[in-house]
From TrEMBL:
Main localisation: mitochondrion
Keywords (A to Z) from UniProt: Chaperone, Mitochondrion, Transit peptide
GO cellular component: mitochondrial intermembrane space; mitochondrial matrix
Protein name: Succinate dehydrogenase assembly factor 3
GO biological process, one term: succinate metabolic process
Species in which this protein is naturally found: Triparma strigata
Leader sequence residues: none
InterPro entries per record: SDHAF3/Sdh7
Subunit (UniProt): Interacts with the iron-sulfur protein subunit within the SDH catalytic dimer.
Amino acid sequence: MSSSPGLLLYRRILRLHRFLPPHMKDLGDTYVRSEFALHKSATDKTLSNFMEQWKEYADQIERERDRRELDMKLGGDGSGRNWGRDIEDELSEEQKAQLEKLKEETIKVRQGVDGSDDADGTSDRTSSSGGAAGVTIESYKPSSSSSS
C-alpha cells in the first residue's frame, strides 16, 4: 500500500518540525495542517504549485537542520556562530581568506535584506519566514490564553 505524494510531504514536514523550537513547532504544525486541509480539493494546477512550494519549504528546513547538526559536531552550539578556534587554526591561508570574503559578502547581503547595520548581522527585529507559504511572522510570542 503506497501513500499519496501529498501525504508523504505532509508527514515529512511534520517530522522536520520536531527539530524546531517548541513554539515554532506548534505554530508550524498548525499552519501546515490548515493549509493541507484547505487544499484537499484544489485543482491540479493549484495543487502542483502548492506541492512544489511546500517541497521547497521542507528542503529548506532540512538544510537548516543539517547545518545545525554539523555545527554541533564541530563543537558549536548549533547556531553556526561558535566555530571553535581550533577549527580555524586548521584552515589554510587560502581557506581563511575565502572565509573572510564569505563573511564580508554575507554582511553586505544581510544589510541589504533586513536593514541591519550590525557587523554581526543582528538586528532589532525578530522575524521568521514561512517559506513556501510566503508568511512572515514578526516577533511571534506564543500566548497562554487566546484573546479576540
